Amino acid sequence: MNVAVHQPHVLVVEDDALLRTQLVHSLARSGYAVTAHGSVEPLADAALPDGPCVALLDMRLGEGSGVDALRLLRRRKPGLAVVFISGGSQPQEIVQAMKLGATDFLVKPFTLETLRAALERGLRCTRQAGELVDIPIDVPAPDPAAATVTEVDLPLDIPPAAAPGRQGPDS
After folding, report:
1. pLDDT exceeding 70 applies to what percent of the chain?
2. How far apart are the C-alpha atoms of 72 and 91, rounded to whole Å?
3. Which residues make beta-bridge pairs with 84?
4. With 80 as the cut, is the pLDDT of residue 155 above it?
5. What is the pTM of this model?
6. Which residues, 6+ apart, have CB-to-CB distance to 154 below 8 Å?
C-alpha cells in the first residue's frame, strides 16, 4: 500500500516583519512548505493546505491575538496543530492557549532546533474527538530544493538592517 507523503506545511502568523522573514527562510531551508501572514485578518480567506500542517502563532499580534487566530483556524480546520511563540506572555495566556489545544508554547528567543522539535510534535498530533492522538506522518529529511515558500505580507529581499518597524523581543 503506497501512502503519499506530503511536504509538511507551517502556517506562520507573526506581526514582527523581521522575525517573520527569518522564520520563513529558516523553515523553508529546513524542508517545510511555509505560508506567512502578519496578522489574523487574512486567515479568514487564506487557503489552508490539505496535507500535514501546523500553525505557528505569535501570542501577541498588532491587531488581534494568537488566541483569535487559533479560534479562527480551528473553525476552518478542526484538527490543525498549533504551536505558540511569545516573548512576553503572562502565565494565564499560556494556560489559555494550552487549554484551547495548543500542542506547544515556546518563549522567545528560541533556537531553530527547539522550534523544529515543537513543529514535528505538532505534525504528529491531531485533535480528534477532543483528544490528542498520534497520527502517522512522515516528516521527511530537510530538502531545501523542494521547499515551498509563500510570504504574503513582506517582500523576501528586505535586508534585516532595513526592515521597517523592528520591535523588541516582546512583540
Report:
1. 70
2. 22
3. 57, 105
4. no
5. 0.73
6. 17, 20, 21, 36, 38
Question: Which of 87-91, 92-96, 143-147 has the lowest average pLDDT?
Answer: 143-147
**Nearest CA among 155, 153, 141, 157 for reference residue 29:** 141
Q: Cell 500535514 maps to which residue?
A: 52
Q: Which residues contact 79 (CB under 8 A, 6 or more apart)?
A: 126, 127, 128
Residues 3, 137: Cα–Cα separation, whole Å: 10
Residue 66: which residues within 8 A CB-CB, separation 6 or more?
13, 57, 58, 59, 60, 84, 86, 97
Cell of 88: 512576553
Q: Are 65 and 85 in contact, with CB atoms under 8 Å apart?
A: no
Average of per-residue pLDDT across 103-122: 93
- Cell (9 digits) for 53: 500542517
- pLDDT over 90 percentage in the chain: 46
The one-letter code for the residue type at 69 is A
